[in-house]
Structures are given as C-alpha cells and as structure tokens.
Amino acid sequence: MSTPGRGLHGQVLDTLGPDITAGKYPPGSVLRTDELAQRFEVSRSVMREAVRVLESMHLVESRRRVGVTVLPECEWNVYDPQVIRWRLAGADRPRQLRSLTVLRSAVEPVAAGLAARHATSEQCAELTECALGMVANSRGHKLEGYLFHDVAFHRVILTASGNEMFARLGDVVAEVLAGRTHHDVMFEDPDPAAVTLHVQVAEAVRERDAERAERLTREITVGALQELDILAP
Amino acid sequence: MSTPGRGLHGQVLDTLGPDITAGKYPPGSVLRTDELAQRFEVSRSVMREAVRVLESMHLVESRRRVGVTVLPECEWNVYDPQVIRWRLAGADRPRQLRSLTVLRSAVEPVAAGLAARHATSEQCAELTECALGMVANSRGHKLEGYLFHDVAFHRVILTASGNEMFARLGDVVAEVLAGRTHHDVMFEDPDPAAVTLHVQVAEAVRERDAERAERLTREITVGALQELDILAP
DNA sequence: GGGAACAAAAAGTCAGATTTATTTGTCACA
DNA sequence: TGTGACAAATAAATCTGACTTTTTGTTCCC
Question: Closest residue by Cα to the C1' atom of nucleotide D23?
Fold first, then answer.
C-alpha cells in the first residue's frame, strides 16, 4: 500500500510520522533538527526535507531559536491520506475508524444521490457488476472476494457523484472497509440485508432515482455505524 | 490569512503552488529542480524543500533521471487547506466553491445532529449567542458582522459534533461563507428565512433534538446549494 | 525594577562535491 | 531483424561545512 521509502527523507517519515501521530511526543514537545538527523543517521538536508513535510501536514511547527515543536492533535491535517494511514496503524485505530465511519455516513448517501443524477452508463454497469460480485461472494466465507467488490462499489459511487471531494474519499472508504474485514471481528458471512441494499442502490442509480439511492445508502451507512456501536440510545 | 512566507521555501510555494493548481503546468509537465532554483533565485536545498511539500500534497512527483512531474488533478490532496486556498485564489474558484458547498451539504446536517447529542452547555450558549449575533446583523447592510457570526455558528456546530474530521472543516466553511459575502453578489441583506433557521438550529441543539437539528441544517445547506444553482430540475 | 545592549542557540541558507538510479542508445550476437 | 547485455549520460539524491538570521534569555547599567 502507498509508497514506502521514496528516498531517505521518506524512510525517516515512515518512522517519525507514526511516532508523532501515535502521541509518542506530546504536543509542545521540542525536537531539534540536528539531533534528529543524528538519530536517523541522515544529513541535515534530508532531515530538513522531512520536517518540511511534517510541517505541511501541520503535525509540527519549526521556529528559529526554538526548534521543531509538535502541534496539538486539533491542528493536524486529518484528511491527509498519509496521516490517516499513520493513525490507522497506531494505537488509536479504533477511534480513527469511528471518525471515518461517521464521515462516511454523512458523505456516501449524498454521493449516491448525486451518482443517480450524473453516473454514466458505464458507471451504472460497473455498479451493477460490483453488486453482483458482492452477491456471489456473500456466502461461504469468501470474505476477500466480497471486500474487493464492496470497495469497488463504493469507489464507483463516490467517483460517479461528479464531486472531486467525494471522489478523493475512495481510499478512505477502502481503508475502513478493509479494516472491518481484517482487524475487527468478521468471521461470519456479511449481513444479507446489507448485500441486498447494495443491489438496490445499483438499481436506483441505474433508474436515476436519486432520492431512493440516497435513502438506501443511508441505510447501509447506518448499518456501518451500528457495527461500531455508534448510535443514539 | 494563513501564514504567508514562512521561510524562503514558503515564498517559493506561494507562487509555485498557485501556478500548479491553476493548471499553468499541464499534468505530465516536467520541471527540473535546478532550473526552478535559478528561476526563483534560491539554492537547490530550498527548492528541494518546496518540491517535497508539493510532493506530499500529491501535486507533483519527483523521480530520478526524469525530473519533477506535475500530477493530474485527480491525484491532488484536495482536502489540504493550503491546496484549497490556492485553488480558491485561482481561476476555477467557482467550481471549487461548488465542490465545497456540496461537501458542506453532506456534512453539516449530520454534524448538527451529532452536536445536539454531544454539545456542552457552553457550546449551546455559544451557539445561541452566534445566532443572536446573526439576527442583530441581519438588517441594514451589516454584512461583515453577519458573516462573523455566521462563520462562528458553523464552527461551533462542527466542533460540537465531537468528530475531529468534521471539526477540521471549520476553515473550509469559513472560506466558503467569506467567499459568498465578498466575491459573489451579496449586496442585499441575508435571507430572513436563513436567519430564522439558524436560530431554530441553536434551539434544537439546546433542546437535544438531534433529528430536528439535522433537518433544519439540511434546509440551510439546501439554500446554499440553490444560491449556486446546484439542484435537481 | 525596568530597559537596553549583548550573547548564545537553533533554524535557515548557500555552494560545491559526490553518489545513485534510471533512461536511452549502442553494439554484438543469435 | 530482433533481442540481449553493456555503457554513457543525465538529473535527482545526498552529504558536508561554512555562513546568516532570528529569537530568546541574560546581564548590566541607569
């Protein structure tokens, strides 16, 4: 996944990024460039490049005479795919998954509604194909095959919405779905009701029924929220 | 706004970033570090830092023996606040505003529903205060005062939702609202119906009525969509 | 006790040398 | 003619050391 170690500075980030997002250095901690360069056995220039990237993610702030200060969590660019991966790999993975699932529950229904209006006929076909793939893999512990088509399905919806911001959430959704299948408990076959809903969403989009596509997708995301016990009592 | 020119590499980014996001260098264009360093009259090290930042935003890709390649728009980290600002400052500002407004319409209603469940009493008080501020500035061409309270209102909603991903959209919403007031036509006083809706949302949150808060906020965002002529025929 | 001058610390900048990976072209051999 | 290996060219990647600038804290004098 992603691009591990594209250059020395990338390798430094692969350790330093997760360390920071994991809270190893509490907000306000001060690091010094020279010290870091020594620790990672790289030149100062390489270390500076790494710091610049962390700075662009608002994970740290570099100030003269002070050093590289770790910023509080509320400043981080939590939409940066790299930051998301680092956080998902760390200890607060569960909390991160909850945040992302709530985001999904807000975005995907609207995206589905837009997809019903803007999807090309190719995208409609893709969608149907994905839904059928999900059905075909919904019984008999074929979880990987199911996941593959599930991810593809939601990617098509987000892309077909015609909104670039939605489209870019495809990777996030993929990460969340993969996380649910691999890390969390999902020994059993997927919920048949969920499978049916996906098929119906594909139908609704094909029939240009925006309202129905939105409502059905909302049911899917409500299910995702319930799996994580996120809901009102 | 933001932090212009934090170091030489920042100044380089202030021109190179907008240039790239404006499409001045079409996707696939190849830039060379040395050439750029000469053009901007900075050392190669500074140029490299700038390139690293652009690379972390997925605006460009740097490869040996090839150079710095500009990536297609679909690769960009469109949620990066810096990228958003650059694009809003450029020629496709209208398209960007539409994307962001659609995102708002998806996120804010859900955020309001969550805020009704999780808002602290201080946040409820803030919300009421903001709504009252909007009312007070809703007549007599007090657009700046209105904008100030409007931005604050939506920030509180997003923060009070308790979801960090939502909270981080505060700046985006601020940008969109400011854009509407300053750039687009808004000579007249704001729509009285919108003002009333804000007051009612504050009420709903205070009374912990999640469903009503969500529904009312959806009405607000539908209004925002209509202003930009984004809606079904 | 307050303000100005001074000193130290750390990031910021630059320039040159060197290394490394990738592409591209060439040449020999099948 | 095509294909493989090998060599050269190229531009990024890295390292190093010297120098600059800004900020902060201290000290000294009034």
Answer: A65
Inform me whether the C-beta atom of residue A106 falls under 8 Å from chain B C-beta atoms. Answer: yes
CA separation for the pair B157, A182 (Å, rounded):
34
Q: B172 and chain A: CB distance < 8 Å anywhere?
A: no
Helices first, then strands: H and E counts in chain B: 11, 3
Give me the numbers of helices (H) and strands (E) for chain A, helices first please. Answer: 11, 3
Query: Cα separation of B73 and B82, whole Å?
Result: 15
Whole-angstrom Cα distance, residue A192 to residue B45? 57
- Tell whether B12 and B100 lie within a shared domain: no
pLDDT tens, A194-205? Answer: 999 999 999 999
Q: Give me the domain span that covers residue B41.
A: 8-75
Supply A15's token pair: 């350790």
Q: For all residues of chain B together, what is the average pLDDT? A: 93
- For residue A215 the two structure tokens come to 């409502």
Instruction: For residues B62 and B105, state if they share a domain.
Output: no
B97 and B68 in a single domain? The answer is no
- Domain count of chain B? 2
| Strand D–CB B33 distance below 7 A | yes
Looking at residue A233, its pLDDT comes to 47
Q: In this predicted model, what pLDDT tens digit does every residue of B57-93 receive, in sequence order?
A: 999 999 999 999 999 999 999 999 999 999 999 998 9
Note whether A110 contacts B100, CB cutoff 8 Å.
Answer: no
**Is there a domain that residue A82 lies in?**
no
How high is the pLDDT of residue B43?
96
How many Å does it take to go from CA A117 to C1' D1? Answer: 55
Kindly report the nearest CA distance between residue B141 and chain A, in angstroms. 34
Q: What single-letter DSSP state applies at residue A72?
A: P
Q: Which residue of B has its CA nearest to A78?
A: B165
Shared domain check, A210 and A170: yes
- CATH number, position A50: 1.10.10.10
Q: Which of A6, A56, A101 is the mutation pick for testing B, counting most B CBs within 10 A?
A: A56
- Residue B82 belongs to a domain: no
Tell me the CATH number at B105: 1.20.120.530
Q: How far is B169 from chain A (nearest CA, A)?
A: 10
